[in-house]
Write a structure and sequence with these properties.
The chain has a domain of 146 residues. Strands 1, 2, 3, 5, 13, 14, 15, 16, 19, 20, 21 and 22 form a 12-stranded mixed sheet that branches. Strands 6, 7, 8, 9, 10, 11 and 12 form a 7-stranded antiparallel sheet that branches. A 3-stranded mixed sheet has the order 4-17-18, with no helix packed on it. The protein is built from 5 helices and 22 strands. It has 326 residues and is mostly beta strands. The longest helix has 12 residues.
Length: 326
Amino acid sequence: MRTRTIGISTATVAVMGALAGLSGFSNAHPTPDATVVPIHDQTTTPLTQVEMRNVDFMVDPNVVLHIHHLRGTMRSKVGDLIHFDDKRSFILHLTSAEVGLTGNDLTVLLNKYVFAYPGAPLTHLRVTTSGSQIVQTGHLHKVIDLPFTIHATLSVTPDGHIRMHPTYTKILGLHVDGLMHGLDLTLEKLINLRGARGASVKGNDIFLAPDSILPPPTIEGHAIAVRVQGDEVIQTFREDNAAAPLAIPDPKAPNFMFYRGGTLQFGRLVMLDAEMQIVDLDPGDPFVFNLDRYNDQLIAGYSKTLPDLGLEVHMPDFDTLHSTSQ
């Protein structure tokens, strides 16, 4: 089964680009004589099982993956150890999940990652939602800056691509969909996506191969559905043989991240045959977790050893810490 990295915003921007053509831890510290863990073939690298619920996972200081629920695995790109301090070194694979991005999240992704290159045709991008559709505004660079607004529907193809279909387009305040139809113009004839990341076009539809939209860590999965719900664009991921739910040490915790199996490394601490549940100290809202600053959350919380020598870590939300400088 083909896998794709989470992301929706490249496809949405691609439509706009087309219109531009209109006109338990080890307590031992490492020592100089410590054995170096060898790098093994990835086919033998043990997987770490993962389950999450109600987690706002920060992938950027201003971009949050709203993980409603997630079941998957983690694997290292370079060996057995999963290094939480190097988010480029591992992959989070989703076997089943629902993950959302708000309009603000998508707006930052478009401006900071997707079109953050010299000569980008689109600037000042903004994404909002309206009913079951998304609405995008911004400026097209075509001799002069042309303000535009696009409404579009979202769907998923059988192979997991995200399809975006424009339903209403305005440029310089003028409705131009009829003009495009009258001139027999399609997005495929007009669009140049060589500068975009992970998007293709056929006819009037844009297809997203979302393998580079988000900053690390790499998150991959097979999308089977996408919908607009409130202010979020929510993607549903599921494989044919999705993994069963894990036995959670503290199943009553409403917001948590749970890791089982494999070897995890956090700073100077290593957990073998991992069993670790990270629990939100404030269950009243989703758990805000910042992988880049997890140590601050770890210090501000506490942990306890479970009867089977697993670990339960209680952390405050990142956005409640006193030190929030990035």
